[in-house]
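User: Fold this; tokens only.

Assistant: Input:
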Amino acid sequence: MSRHAVILAAALTALALVSAAHAQAPERAGEPALERLTFEEAVNRAMTENPNVGEASQAILKAQALLDDAGSVFLPFAYGNVATTLLDEARGFDENIVQPRTQTAFSLTVSYAVFDAVRWARRRHAEDDVITARAAARETRQHIAVVAAQAFLAVIAAEQQSAIAVRNRETAQALEDYARARLEAGQGSRLNHVRAVQQRATADSLVQIAELAVHGAQEALGVAVFAPGRVGASGEPYLPPAVAPKDDAWLEERPDVQRSTAELRARDRIVDDSWKSWAPTATASFSPRYVTPAGLFEPSKTWRAVLQLDIPLFDGSLGATKAARIADRETARLRLDGLRAEARSELRQASEAVRRNEAIVTSTREAAQAAIDALQISEIAYREGATTNVEVVQAQQAARNGEIGAVVAENRLRQVRLDLLVALGQFP
């Protein structure tokens, strides 16, 4: 081994030891240890801790409460009444008291809707609202899960690019030390040393930029999982391969399609029930009554039973109300048709993107490896004096760009695989 090679190897070994020491040290003095989550942990925590999920759950509870209220039409209605009457003096004739001066009456009324088509229909509408609220909650959960997943993938990409920048800086530092040693030994040139210093300084700035990107991505992940601080990524995400189906059955697995379908079904039922506004309403009631003291013409114990039938004869607002309901239904139908068309387009695009990006990843990995091999050859040639460090600097830049390109392509492949799962309604 030549003397130049020994100097370069010693410099690289020293830098490796320093980098290992920095990797084992805390991230920053006084800063708590960074929490790291796996892909599954991040997605699950986001769907559990995010306030929007709680709001969706409350919407379901509210819809259920309204359903219970609408269901009260099938229960009897009962209320009691106590009334005390005080007159200036008793009423009567021929020493017979018709109305005592003080009289207390106790009564109880129980009524039941024997036939009330409108209120019965409202209960069915309330059931549809519960189904719609649940579908909306599933859509909210999916949206939150996708945001967390994308934030996790962004952290992985930023951390990988930061690692590349650190390795590039270590290589640049080693070449700077080598150029300085040769210059001090009277065997190198001032130009080579200045070029090496410039390359190392550029690598330092790229490390700072990469670390800032990591910090921002971790902050975004922390917000997505509703953590008190920034959160790092642990391990590779598992995104199972998905195959595009041959029919449209997958559409019903999408939460947004489920919600829109539930809305259309609810609107359609409201239109179908419009005729019930013209149906008569029958109510039966029973009222026992006790009065003390009794009057001459009023016994102390009485009761009354009533069967009441209300028949609507004319209501000028019903026609306009039905027309508005039909417009709402057709709007929901058009919205669902547009959503289905958009979902099919998303599936086609995601499937094509997965296929293309798989090929892109293969090509960029091959290019990155070739650039790394070229860098190694350039370093050997430079140590042997066959080239200047200009070729080494160019090879360093090409290797760095190749590695970053491979990382970006791999992250893009993860993203499109996630998009395909979302398009099929298979995530989370």
